[in-house]
Amino acid sequence: MKRSAVAAAAFALTLSLPTAAHAAAPSAALAPAAAVVPQVLAIGVAVGALPLATEDRTGYQRTSFRHWSAGDIPADGCNTRAEVLLSEAVVYPEIGPGCTLTGGTWWSYYDEREVTSPGALDIDHMVPLAEAWDSGASGWTAARREAYANDQGQPTSLVAVTARSNRSKADQDPAEWLPPSADALCRYGAEWTATKLRWGLAVDEAERDRLLDIAAGCGGTDVEFTPAP
Length: 229
Known about the structure:
two-stranded antiparallel ribbon, 9 helices
């Protein structure tokens, strides 16, 4: 799909998508929300719906995003990291006291590696915390940044991958880093886009252009996202 066609197809969608400014509004000021329906867009249309803005890292500190929290099920004694590991396990690990995980098997799709030790895995924020700050999260409340950093409401937001691949990625966007596995490209582009749409985060020009290039080679790939509460 040509970029001009993508922009035209996306135009009618942008008003209904969350924006950084909207996301920053205190929840107490919002009317009771109706049930949120997941949205599914072709990847080119989804990328075209992302707001464009200049990034600014002024004031960023990793500590501005509190993690890991007690997770979605506080009573299980496992924090967000452990809950993501449990949800993504190919072979379920044993859970010991204090939610210590032993055994189990995971698949790191960034580099196509099978991992059998939980300690060899990182939980990657699909859109890194620094990138989220640059893209709109600097205007959020501390509570919303914590919700972002521990987001299990959309499976694409947090992903278990090898520590090596996560640290190679660091805080880079797709214009600067892509997974080493060629087979991961379409999935990664879709999940990055889904996370930004979920949280109303913007893209800069280089990032958008790289995502459009990915989309051009990923016909038939959909982006599914649910706007964050």
